[in-house]
Amino acid sequence: MREVEHAIDLTSSETPHKPLYSLTHPEMDELKKQLDYLIDRGLLRPSTSPFGAPVLFGGLRLCLDYRALNKITVKNRYPLSCIENQIARIQGARYFTKLDLRWGYWLVRIRDGDQHKTAITTRYGAYEFMIRGCLP
Asked: In this protein, which residues make up the domain named Reverse transcriptase (predicted)?
């Protein structure tokens, strides 16, 4: 498997930092649990970045509001493979692998020097991701 790093190239020198969103007590408890889980696994670390995206919940799934960062991020344009071509390539194959796409983003590291751009702000402090911040 090739090493992949996610780069966050910006179109301006802005450092978006949005205010915190209101969270319920159960959401606060879940946030603390998920932050501890990510920190314990080395996927998230404390941050002093001037960037700051608020967190919110969809159900009890942690969501990150990177809309302000996305506005100043260079858009990468990669052609997507045609699924029919990919299926044709595996015709006759005898062995297959199963991928857990839920956790796939956690396999993509953030490029060194870009981690501060992923900073999130919470009532428990500010943190930045070492990996793609798409949570299961």
From this structure: 59-123
